[in-house]
Design goal:
The structure is a homotrimer of 309-residue chains. In chain A, helix 3 links the parallel strand 1 (46-51) and strand 2. Chain A starts with 16 loop residues before the first helix and ends in a 5-residue tail after the last helix. The first copy, chain A, has 2 domains: 12-135 and 292-304, Rossmann fold, CATH 3.40.50.1370; 137-289, Aspartate/ornithine carbamoyltransferase (Rossmann fold, 3-Layer(aba) Sandwich). With 309 residues, the first copy, chain A, is an alpha/beta fold. Chain A is 39% helix and 15% strand. In chain A, the strands form 2 sheets. Chain A has a 5-stranded parallel sheet with strand order 7-6-5-8-9. In chain A, strands 2-1-3-4 form a 4-stranded parallel sheet, with helices on both faces. Chains in contact: A-B, A-C, B-C. Chain A binds chain C through residues 35-36, 39, 54-57, 60-61, 63-64, 67-68, 70, 72-73, 267-270, 275, 286, 289-290, 293, and chain C through 43-44, 46, 72, 74-76, 82-84, 86-89, 91-92, 95-97, 99-101.
């Protein structure tokens, strides 16, 4: 029996290097199957989704992943606006959806929601983003993209730039990177530095440098992971515009980077990466989307098949 | 040819005991099939849904039922908010969806809507709740749950508690129970008693006792069917709180009931059943959800296969 | 290799008579297949839709077409109200959906949107309505309906009545008809005449008569294509009511037409065709819906299969 069978996927912290590498191997395998072989993996199985916080992007990634392995999806894409919202508890809604499906995908605003929901669900639960820090399938997608595009993760010099304070993606990614021997540069304005209370654990595992200056690091980076800076985070617009401008990734910046450095982004991208970068060989953020579908397909397949696939 | 083939399912009143028992037998059969056998029943068939009154719960029950027998679903989950709503008539919308599908599932606020829609639809129509009284598939789900969990329906003592005035579920259930030899206790505040104009027919078939006092009946009941009491139904809040409090099903109440009594609820449940009841062997409201999926799968299967399944 | 394989469908202007006839032949073929043969055509393939302008009708037509040939659909039915709308560009959203699917279906308010989107999409793109003039699949559906019901298109006398100024359907239909030898009467109030700047091209290919008087043409028409007149288009209500009244198709009007004339309408119909017409042998607007599903299935099938089907 495979170790992931019928297991919940709640936190990236539950994945050590060995587990991550197994998922990467399975993702490679799934990418090599032809479509009809691939559709046998979860043929006729049903994914039930429950999004308390709407996320079209994540939902479609799971939906397409499930379709690509022969399954189908149903559920509630926006609980707040659905008729479910008549005061029913999270527990009851989770129980209902878990009856209708083989695996449950939950997105929720609160920390701990997935752990709680997994306990009341009869079926394995996958956390599709919860609270301030957890987005395990995004982290797996990001790590797989690095591995696939750079042929390794150990030894990489990785810059993460933008809003590091808000945005669960960064926290999950850092916890995932904690399993590897990497050199991480956290680049952000002072006011959007990573929350120190959340990174105590990460700092014990990971070589982290914090800075506001992206310029000094550019020529050393193998990977530049860009995140969005939201205007709403700034008390005044002038400050926002100054910060935003200094971190925009364009061809100029690219020139100062290694020839084979890759640019990643969890998307949606607004203007923190210029469109002119899209057609360079360094731009891998759409590859990242594709790998996200494949890693999710691998996770669903391994969760729903006793003997793997 | 099976008698349900290509027939509409409009009203629970069209189901006599013999028909109900046939559906129960088919539901038992469908529950024993393995997933791949099951998916042959409506392989490649399409269910078209049309919800003029949104109901995520009922829609997902049909959707998952159809998926479990190999079919797919499409349609409009909220006509009011859809672009269909450009003044198009019910008849035209029904005709359109019926062209795209093999069976039509309609939810509508008005009495008689399903009968009307069935006449203009080329395809068999299933009423998923209409007007004040009709919700035939919910009644079949509820009856099957009693049969399955109590091994019989005849002879049962059944309490129905809560808001009996509004809520079509109760009316449909009573009409369904009219086919059996049961003893029914209707327990509600004065102001939420069942509408006497609607129950003339039911009273001729069914042994009904009306009361406001749940306590006197508890020790006799085999089934307690709980419904939600909505605050909006009460002119003042004090009255509401008094009523609500007296009907909450908790462990205390359970202790005064038969050891093997079962608690049902059409869901969503707010707080008329305490969470502490959920893990008792008496709580069958989530089983009821599961049986709802299976009874709907049986109904869809028998409607769409000339020689049954 | 078939000439439509992996090709975008952007404009009806890209379809000459030969291409249209090929699609019609394929539509005839698809209609003769039994359901399980039909489901082999796009088995396991995924249609990704992206509707910047909601259109339940068009979306369901594509969805059911894809289901009927064995594929599935996913996407965003209303971009404006989806979480995608965080300022992401059309290009990025198109790239994302194209990664998740084998063919992309786009509806957009702007002229040129489809051409632009097709350039950034990795997968073939089908325009499901854009800007003021383009709705190629609707035109193909309309032309196929004429061909199927009248056994030919060349030689037909076709009246198009209603709002000819707004509504992209009419423009696309006229461009499609430009490939045939037909006699077209454009019947509308003065203020809703077809835009002359848009019809320069059409007028070189097509014998067009413009009139406000429907009566004079009725007895000659083989096809009467009715479109909706929207109240909002008129500066004052009196004018609207006068115009509306004079173009309503009822049994009276039908009596003055050829016995075998057919009435078409892109739907939704409000009251420009009386319900009494629905059951006459002349009413073909629901047949038109059905043919729309089949023509779209043929288009999807031929786009996604190298050697056709």
């Amino acid at each position: 029996m495979n170790e992931f069978y019928q297991k919940d996927i709640i936190s990236i912290k539950d994945f050590d290097k060995e587990k991550l590498e197994k998922i990467f191997t399975l993702t490679e395998k799934i990418m090599q199957l032809n479509p009809s072989e691939r559709r046998e993996i979860c043929k006729g199985k049903t994914l039930g989704y429950l999004f308390y916080e709407p996320s079209t992007r994540t939902r479609l990634s799971f939906d397409s992943a499930m379709a690509s392995i022969g399954g189908n999806s149903l559920g509630i894409s926006n609980v707040a606006s659905s008729s479910t919202q008549k005061g029913e508890s999270l527990a009851d809604t989770v129980r209902m959806i878990s009856i209708y499906s083989d695996v449950l995908v939950l997105r929720h605003t609160l920390d701990g929601s997935s752990r709680f929901a997994a306990e009341v669900s009869d079926k394995p639960l996958i956390n599709a983003g919860s609270g301030t820090e957890e987005h395990p399938t995004q982290a797996i997608q990001d790590l797989f993209t690095m591995k696939k595009e750079k042929k390794k993760i150990d030894g990489l010099k990785i810059g993460i730039v933008g809003d590091l304070k808000y945005g669960r993606t960064v926290y999950s990614l850092l916890h995932g990177l904690g399993n590897y021997d990497v050199d991480v540069r956290l680049i952000s304005p002072e006011s959007l530095r990573i929350r120190s209370d959340s990174t105590y654990e990460i700092k014990q595992k990971l070589d982290l440098t914090e800075t506001t200056n992206i310029e000094e690091h550019l020529d050393e980076l193998d990977v530049l992971y860009v995140t969005r800076i939201q205007k709403e985070r700034f008390p005044d617009e002038e400050e926002y515009l100054k910060v935003k401008g200094s971190y925009v990734v364009g061809l100029d910046m690219l020139k100062r980077m290694k020839d084979d450095a890759i640019i990643l982004h969890p998307l949606p991208r607004i203007d923190e990466i210029s469109a002119e970068v899209d057609n360079t060989k360094n731009a891998k953020y759409f590859k990242q989307v594709e790998y996200g579908m494949h890693t999710r397909a691998a996770l669903l397949g391994v969760t729903l098949n006793e003997n793997g696939f």
